[in-house]
Each structure stands twice: as C-alpha cells, then as structure tokens.
Amino acid sequence: MHCLTCKSTIDQADDRCPKCGAAVHRREDPESERRFVTILRADVIDSTGLVAELEPEEAVSRLEPALAAMRGAVRQFGGIVSKELGDGLAAVFGAPIADDNHAPLACHAAIELVRRVVGLGDAGLQVRVGLHSGHVVAYMVASEFSKVYEIGGAAQHLAARLEGAAEANQIYASEACQKLAEGHVRFDFLGRKALRGFNEPLPVYRLLGASDLSSWRVRRARSVSRFVDRATERVLLRRAAEGVAINRQTVLLMGDAGIGKSRLAHEFVQDLRASGWRLIDAECSPNLQGAPYSALKRVLQSILDAAARDPARADDLRDALPAIQQRAVDAVLDLPISDPQWDELGPHARGRAISDASCALVEAVARRQRTVLLIEDVHWIDRASDAVVAILSGLQCPDLLVLLTTRPNGMPVWIARCQAEIVAIRPLDDDSGRAMLAEMLGPATSNADLKNRIISHTANVPLFIEEVCRSLKDSGMLLGQWGDLSLARPIDELGIPSSIQGVIAARLDRVSRQERSLLQIAAALGPRANQAMLRKVAALPEDVFQGCLTALDRAELLVRIDSELEDSLEFRHEMVRQVTYDSMIEKVRESIHAGILAALETDEAWADGPDTLCYHATRAKDWQKAFLHGKGAALKCFARSAFADAANYFVIAMNSLDKTDLTRSREANAIDLRLEARLAFMASGQVSEWLDHGKEAERRADAIDDIERKVAAMTVSAAAQNFYGTPAEAVAISEDVIVLAKKWGNLGWLNAAEYGLGQAYFLAGRYQAAEQAFARVRIQLKGPDSSPPIGTPPKHTLLLCCMMKSFTHTVMGELDTAEQLEREAAAIAEETGRPYDRVGAAYSGGWLKLGQGDPAAAAAILEDGFVLAQKHGIRLFVPVLACHLGIAYLEQGLFDRARGMLAEAREEAKAVGYTSAVLRSSIYLALATHRLGDVQAAQNMLREARNTARQQGFSGLEAEALVGEAMVTPASDEANRVAVLAALRAAIAIASDNGALPLKQKAEAMLNEMLAPGATS
C-alpha cells in the first residue's frame, strides 16, 4: 500500500503515512458496487485564460460562482457531486441510491446548470457539459475527516470526451443517455463524431431543452402493446365510481414501477369520461420534488383549463372564491400578486388559504359534474402539495372520485385517514402475458418458445415485457414489424434492457445491507437457491437469517417455493437475479463463489455435481479447482454420451489449468487432458478442434521433452487427419507414429496408432493394407493385454476395429467375413449399451446390408442409428449415416427422399470437416439428381467429386465417381461413348489395384454391355 501524497510504502494498519504524516485514504471495498448511472461532466471553457493574470484569491472569486451554480443544479435534481476539478465537476445520478429516472434527472440538471451559469451575467464564464449513461464501479473513499463518493470505469471517460467536444453553453449526450431520456427532454442528432480514445466515431446528441410531455405521455408514446387483463382491478375501480353518488371515494393504485398502474388508471379514466365524467389530472415529477406546490400547481391548472374549455360556463371559477383564496391560487400558479393582505399572512396562514382554495375549486367542479381527480406517482410528490392532497383525498364531497397511484415505498402516511381503498397491482397472469406478447410479436406459433422465455424472464411485469421485446427488435434479434416479428437467430440470453436497469436496482436499494448480502449469495447460487445451502454460505444467526428471508419474500425479490420435496427459494424473475449479480464488483463475486464452492465441497449431497462445482470454481477464479471439477464434469458428460457438453467442459478445464503456475507437472496434466478429450471432440464432430488439441499436446510434449506423451499426441493428431486432411498425409503421419509407438512400447497407444493407420489406408483405397492393419489391432485387442489408452472406454477401439474391418471386407466383396465382424460389433454394442457404440454398430450393419443388396433392411438399420446419433449429438456419425441412408433410398427408387437425405449429409459433412463424407455424399447426390431428370447438374457434381478425389488421393471414391459418370452420361454420340468407356476402364483399373471386387465387377458389366455386339447408343 502506498501513500497518495508522497508515494512511500505504508502498512495496512497505519492511519497516517510515517514519512509525510498525511492521513491514509482507503477504499472500503465492501461498499464498492457496480451501478448503472448517468454521469455529468461540466467545466468552464478556457478557465486557464480567465485566471492566468489573477492573484489566487481573485482567481477563486472569479470561478467560484460558476462552481456554486453547478453544484446547486446537480443537487437540485438529486445528483451527487463525485469530484470537483478546479474549473468544473463530475456528478453522478442514480447512485448511491438507484433511481430509474437517472438519465432524465441528469439532463434536467444539465439544463439548469447552464441556465444558472449564464444567469450569472459574466460573459467570460461559459460552460460545456457532457452526459453519458453506463455501468460504473461506485465506492467510498474515506479519510480521517470525510467520505467522498467516487466512480470508476470507462463510462466516465466518455462523459468527459463529450464534455470536451461540446461548444460553449451546449450539452452533448451519448446515445445511451439519449435513449433513456428521449421524450422527457429534446435532442438534436449531430451525427457520429470522432472522440479521443475511442476507435470508432460515436453518435452524439445535443440537448435542446426540456419537454412538456408528462411521464405518462412519454411511456404511452413508446408503448406498442394493447391493454390486457386487469379485470379484478377494474371491478374494484368501477365499484368505487358507483359509490361517489353518496360520498367521495378515494382509491390508491399501488405497485412497483412498470407494473401498469398508470396504464390501468388512464384506461379506466377514459371509460369514465366516455360516461360523462370530468377529469382533473396531475402527475408528480421527480424533477420537481424540491419545488413547493409543484404537484398542486398541476392540479389547479387542470381544473382551470377544463373550466375554460367548458362552453356551458362563461365565468372564472376563481371569481367565486374569497379574495384571500384567489391570492392563494395565484401564488401556487406563480402569478404576480399585489395584495398587502396576502403579504401580511404568515406561512401557516398562507398554507391554510391554499388548501381551502384548492378544496373549494375541486368541490365546485364536482357539484356541477361527476369528477375524477387523478394524481399519479404520489411517491414523488413535493411536501407542500402532499399536505393539500391529503385534505383533498378526505373531502366529504359527493360525485368525487380521487384516484392516486404510487409505488409501495412511497405510500402516503395519511392514506388510512381518508379511508382509501388500496388496490395492489400484481403482475399479469401467464395468459394475459401471452396475449400481450401476441400483440407485439404476432400470433405465430414459431415464437411460442420465445414467448414462454420472456414470460419466465419478466414474471409478466408489463413494462419489462415491452422493453425486452423492444430491446430484441432494436438489436436486430427480432425482424419485421410490430405484430409480425420473427427471430433472426437463436437467442442465448434475453438480457436486461438499460431502460429497466434502474427500475430493478431501485427495488434492490430498498432492502438492508444484510438482506442485500443474502440476496447476492442467492444470485450467485442461481435462479433457484436451496435454503440449507444459502444458510450455510451466509453463516448468519438463524433468527437474523429467517428475518432477512421474510423481508426479501415480502419485497417479492426472493420468494419461498411451496413444496413438500424441497426447501427452496427462487427469484421473482430472472432480471432481479441478473441485476443483483451484476451489481457486485468482481472481488465480491469471487469471494461469494469461493464460499459457495467451499460449502458444496463439504456437502455430500453435491458429491455428484462436478458441473456445479466447476461453475463456482471458475467464477471464484480458483483455477486449480476449476481444472479438477471441469475435468470431472467432462468425464460425467462423456459417460452419459453428452459429447458436446463434455467437449465444452474439457475446454474449461484446459483454460483453467493454463491459468495456474507453469510447472512440468502442469504441462503434463495439460497434455493428458487434451489426449483424454479427443473422443469428446471426435464424437461431437469438432474435427478441427480435435486436430488442434492434438497438435498443441504435441508442442507441449516437445517443450518438456516428454517422448511418451509426444507419441500419444501424434497418434491423436494422426487420427484427426483421417477426417480433416488428405489420405496421403494421414498415411505418412500414421506410419511415422507407429515407428515411434513401437519404440516407446506403450501397447495402448500402439493399437490406437495402428487403427488410425488402417483408417488412413481405407480412405486411400488401399483395402488389403487396411484389412491387415485392422486384423493386427483386432487380435491384440482380443488378447489378455488389451489396455486402452487414456480416455478410451473398454472395448471401444475393438468395436470400431470390427466396424472398419467389416467395411473393408464388404468393399472387397468378402461378405461372409464382413457379416461375422458386423455381428461381433453388434454384440459389443449390446454389451456396453453406450450410444456411441450402438451408432457405430448400426453404421456397420447398414453398410453390410447395402453390400448384400438389401437396401430396405439397410434403411431400417441406418434410420435407427441416424436418430440415435442426432439424439445424443454424435455428430461425427451423422453425415456418414445420412449418406448411406440416402444410398439405401436411392437403391429402393425413392429418389426425392434420397436427394434430400444426401444433400443434408453433404452439408453436415462440410460443417464437420469430414472430407471423405463430403465426396461420397456428393457422388450419390449426383446419382439421385440424375434419376430426377437433371443430367447436367449430375454430371457437374460427379466431375467435381472425381477431380477432388484424384487430387487428394481418395482412390476408392475416385473409382466410385468414375462409375457414376458412366451411369449419368448418355452415350448419345461418339464423344460421349468414348468418355463413358474411358471412365469405366479407369474405374476398373483403380478397383483392381485396390481390391474392390464388387465395384470392379459392376464396372466390367457396364463396360461389357457397352462393347457387346449390337449395343445401341
């Protein structure tokens, strides 16, 4: 730790620097947290030039009025001055207490700041202001005498750059701020501007001034959904309206932000107005909480404006009031008053006159016509208006309905005295939520899953539903027009729109620090938290723990689940959990996850949950444990044939291990992990990753001079080359590996290398060599010393060896031997029950049935294998199964089905990087295309497949392509006839060299038919 004054080293326990004596400033990390706020930066332009010639006292006197004006404007609108900069300041809105109106408040503060500085009358004092909304880390810096609230993060730099770009007495805002404040204030888009420190030009807006739109009108203008449900609440409101004939009725609509209080109130009021009711309405504003009688002023203006528009009334309502009450109304309306009697009144008497006048005006309106007095957002009412509204809400006046809206934390203390009916607004039910979503997204069933996810994510809070949908549309995830939207691509996370970040954060700020801490632990545990685990991690006394849970349940943040089977808690909706989690600084998150990890590791009930342990270890940045639990989770997934998940966990384990200290032991573990992971990447079809990990393991083995691990890594890379590279490369690498493996003497890896060589020979069309390689491995694997290499399940390689040897004998026409081997593969699959083994056996059985000329039986076997491979994500087998299934359809004359399946096989093979499968599916897709009448397309596909097979060394596939060309080329003229004869002769030559007897016989039969006497073109 270093002194901020002299930079000398000091101990953590020191209160003062031992060298210079300065007080130690400490950041209190427990109070640090992430916040979504709006930052205001302002300074005096060319302040250096203004004070360069002045004495220090004069310089301070010149700038201080401007600084005082800035501070006053910020504080008027609820901002916190986080730093004074000599000629300016930095301020934050929305912290330390969250406020969902932080952006509009900051904009109003900026407008007032400029107005105040200009109003000083000093032409030399000109200011510029920058505004930006974003995430910051907020913390307290404590010294001996004070605490200062500071913010950190990239967001403040953008605000500073906008300030620097602004012109004299202008306010520049970022797009993030503009989106949050649009409607509350007016903006002018200035285009994209290059700002220092940012790579790309950013959109910049100039703040023009305040808007005269009410908050309700701003929200209504953004709304894209229709009003739904609220049947129960409307019944209660209608009942209250019917009761006004006897006496005044007061109803308080109470609910959290976004729940739909204003929407319900306005929809109901519209019904009343249609029935002949008069409306007096006003809205309390967070911008005017400090302005006395600001809410009452709006009430009185609404009364007088309505009266002025009434054609049946020519007089002014104020004329019927006593003179002193007329002056009271003028005072509230900020009209000039020239009345000594009013001037002589004390504050209490003036207040009494104002409330009497207000009551008289409301009663006068209600006597003429049934009236609804709607006052919204009374949680933001100013104190002076609050006293008068309390009296209005208790008036004994028939034909008056007083309708108030408020958030739970702002319910008036006087509400019980006026005998108000409190109507608590709850979230929509699922059906109503879906109706709302159908209005916005459209009725299409293709969006059904998305709608269900949004309902779960938002807990049917109307504003949240709207803003999530708007965010998805604005980001391009939803395409089309409102009422007819479709997903552009799958959505992983619905996220939290910036427009409701503050709404949720404000709810979280209502709970105590202890309750907040418990909520953070629950957020780290996940959407649902086991109460026993939460208790263990929190380590609170039981009475305190239960008290916190009760408070959080009452606040509908973390609610108890009624279940006899589990003692659990869950978040009211996912966005509460996300905002809670996101509000924690990284250090706090790590600490909480470390505590959860420790609790889980000592709890036997979680012994089978390495995936959960891996998650918390990774978030705690305990990389050694993340490696161990990641590997455990990978093996667990592999055991249940979840290969893609296994591969993902292997990657987590690899990355975690690489973050530990570099040692020989670490590198050995890293190599072994990549060797062990090979089958997960292979099965899930991640061929390029499989090859990359093999090569990385080889590089690391070289680095630590570990010949044994290098041979194993080369074996893994060679096996991947069979799918990803050319046969010639694969054969050369495999032969080199076998030499090294024999020298090393590890029989398990020698068998793996020999099997890989057999595959390489098979793909190269060297079938006799392939059969010999597979025979050697099979004999060894059936012997007593058949230990498999790391990461290989028992009998796995034996099954694959039987499968490939069966293929080889089928291609060579030795069907009896092939059938014996296929039965052996099927028996192994039956014994192990592993999906991968069953898929391999199905592939072997289908290939054999095609060789035996029974395509219907082949299709039945291959269909089962294809479904099983897709179900378990065994992606490596999907293209080859689809290819041979297409061939089975083709040979049954099902040409449309064949073409569809073969096209799918080819695309899947391309996606996986399975070169031989691309070529084989292309050859037979061409044959299906030919049978469906497109001869030219078939010829082009076969010509391309033949050339590629020849260039890359797939001689067996080259021969099949040549036979295919002969089949699709009509011998309609001499040139075509010559081409067909050449193709068949070339195919026969290749098949003879390869030992592919059935293909050779097929080509010979076609050639003999072409050459037979009397053969016609």
Describe this structure in words.
Keywords: ATP-binding, Nucleotide-binding. This is Putative ATPase. InterPro entries: A/G_cyclase, AAA_16, Nucleotide_cyclase, P-loop_NTPase, TPR-like_helical_dom_sf. Pfam families: AAA_16, Guanylate_cyc. It comes from Bradyrhizobium sacchari. By secondary structure, the chain is an alpha/beta fold. Among the domains are: 32-210, 2-Layer Sandwich (Alpha-Beta Plaits), CATH 3.30.70.1230; 229-424, P-loop containing nucleotide triphosphate hydrolases (Rossmann fold), CATH 3.40.50; 430-505, no CATH class; 511-584, Arc Repressor Mutant, subunit A (Orthogonal Bundle), CATH 1.10.10; 875-1011, Tetratricopeptide repeat domain (Serine Threonine Protein Phosphatase 5, Tetratricopeptide repeat, Alpha Horseshoe), CATH 1.25.40.10. Helix content is 59%, strand content 12%. It has 43 helices and 19 strands. Strands 1, 2, 3, 4, 5, 6, 7, 8 and 9 form a nine-stranded mixed β-sheet that branches. The radius of gyration is 39 Å and the shape is elongated. Mean pLDDT is 87; it is low at 22-30.
Computed Rg = 39 Å
CATH class of one domain: Alpha Beta
Q: What percentage of the residues does DSSP assign to strands (E)?
A: 5-15%
Number of helices: 43
Kindly report the CATH topology of one domain: Rossmann fold
CATH architect. name of one domain:
3-Layer(aba) Sandwich
End-to-end distance, in Å?
A: 94 Å
- Spell out the CATH superfamily of one domain: P-loop containing nucleotide triphosphate hydrolases
Shape category: elongated
Indicate the percent of residues in helices.
Answer: 55-70%
Q: Biggest sheet: strands, sense, closure? A: 9 strands, mixed
Low-pLDDT runs: 22-30
Total strands: the figure is 19
Question: Mean of residue pLDDT?
Answer: 87
Overall SS class = alpha/beta
